[in-house]
Write a structure and sequence with these properties.
The complex is a heterodimer of chains A (277) and B (403). Chain A has 277 residues and is mostly helical. Helices cover 74% and strands 0% of the residues of chain A. Chain B has 403 residues and is an alpha+beta fold. The chains are: A mainly alpha (277), B alpha+beta (403). The complex binds protoporphyrin IX containing FE.
Amino acid sequence: MNSSLALSSATFIYALASVFYIGSFTFKKQVLAKLGFMVLVIGFLDNTLGIILRWIESYQMGYGHAPFANMYESLVFFSWTAAILYIFVELKYKENIIGVFASPLIFLAIAYASLSPDISSKISPLIPALKSNWLIAHVITCFLGYAGFAVAFGFSIMYFVKPENPDAVSIFAKLPSWELIDELTYQMVIFGFLFLTIGIITGAVWANSAWGTYWSWDPKETWSLITWFVYAIFMHLRMMKGWHGKHLAWVSIIGFLAVMFTYFGVNYVLSGLHSYA
Amino acid sequence: MYHAWWFLLLIVILCINIVVCSIDRLSITWKIIFPKKIKFNPQRFRKLKNLETFTIDKTSESLSGKYETFLSKTVGAVIKEETETGTVMYAEKGRWTRMGVYVIHSSILLLFIGALIGGLFGFKANMQLDEGETSDTAFIVKKRIDEGETSDTAFIVKKRIPVNIGFSIKCNDFFVKFYDTGAPEEFRSTLTIIENGKESFTKDIRVNHPLRYKGINIFQASYGTAQPDSVALEIIRLSDKDVTSKTIKIGQEIQLPEDQGVFKLEGFLPHFDFRGNNLGEAFIGKITQKDGNSFQIALPIKFPTFDKMRKGTFAFVVKKFEQKYYTGLQVTKDPGIWYVYSGFILMIIGCWITFFMSHQSYFIEIEKNKTNRSKISISGTTNRNSQGMKLKIQKIVTKLKDK
Ligand code: HEM
């Protein structure tokens, strides 16, 4: 067993979980959703194993660093955080149908990492600037934040597919109540917001210990701040203006687009200190 | 841009906005947060959506004490009142968490204040030291835009502003290590701090491991090859391949064999440009022939036979030289950093309070039903996360049923 075998099998297991969830949704079979959850947990364990093995392999190669140092590793970790977050939500709220909106995201991130020709899965040595414990704190917290926003985004989609009329004969009529969708989206956003905040802060502290400035307005920093502001606006609209439902779901979707741009767009479009991951 | 007047003005306006808004709101919420006396209105709690009721085969007298201890244990101080039909009790916790928002907003103010102090009284400068060199001056590099000759063109001119850092730094040694892949693994400079002409202490710095001394932070930022002191050359007479070896210092002149003229080693270039190609590091020299003609020659290190192609009487080949580095240091001072860091900590605490804690009030009513039965009603309010409150009330119901 090596890390690349573990991670590529995790990709297929996540794909299978998504298929079960979508199947349970379209054929209205609870048992498929239960199966989907079990498969998702197996995929998550496999994903965990892959990350640990990769960590060990990096030490065997003499580079010795935590597996959070390039695009491939960050995407794999993104799937891991989104998966654990979703597993937690399903266990806590006992609503397995919402897996339809979360499991494909988990699968897509790790599939993109494995299949995209632009992303190298080689374990490479760390340049001196990345040799810091703050790197680990920074990456883990940022990705917990991103995962929260991704799951919130998946839940926001429910606002647009659930029919207004409760008696409608639609496969989407079985979705959770409006209050619960609202609650779930909000819980995911505050989770993401707290960790994005800590992520930005640990990044700033690290920059201050590596370069002597806590903020240099490089594109990644600027865009993470823009993302942070979008979600801060989300909070204010909800708490001050009492927004909820579709209007607020739009803000969550815009926020997630900002996350995506911070994560991918900045690397491909703008260059800066962060182009490694 | 971020030092531009309009950017600073924007930040100041934002600060004023937060302060004014928060004071405005706080004057209202203050009375909620610190009431003179906590009152509660049973009628309001009876109408709440999350109200749960059940009946139980026990007397209200026996329940009242138990429920009171339960409430005071799990929530807080209990207010109990007798009504015509039985007893109502009330307890609350987390009133202070309504302050969380103000904690966040003050953290933002602290961040801005810290950034402003840093911008006004701090600096960010560079210092380049060859191995063995000492300096007490760093340079702030500012991009200044000057008008060019044509009106639609501007040139960016780098302006270097010197700053004296109050002590001297000597670079004793620079060291760089590479991975097999060619990527750098570690840079390290051994620095000695010199104050009033006396050596104070010596410390190694690496990327991510700076030296902080007297409010000045010294970071390993970059490195490069410095001009070596001397070079060992071979002078080859092309006609019979006769070789003469010489070690020459930069700036030194030597006589060529057989009185053919003078060679002067003029200097060292890190990037020698030959017809548009960068040939890398090279020594530059000048030959003055005995007829008085003189011309410049270049000796690129990567191309030892380069000078042979000149087809002169002698060809010069670089045999050996001592590779010397310079270390690029980032030298910064930021007296605002502790405001910024306190802002960071306050912001995390504030977010935690605002998002994960709330002001909760609980209400329990015990009504005498028939002789030995009691009707229990439970409800609660919260300023945040009412969905969660519903679940909590249901949990309390199952617990109270067991009492
Ligand atoms: C960590 C992010 C933030 C959170 C969680 C947050 C939360 C809140 C909340 C809950 C309120 C309502 C206050 C009340 O009901 O008394 C509020 C109000 C307000 N916030 Fe924020 N805030 C954040 C960041 C910001 C930022 C970055 C700004 C502007 C730069 C800002 C400006 C304001 C203003 C102007 C108000 C209205 C005045 C007030 O009620 O204090 N907030 N915020």
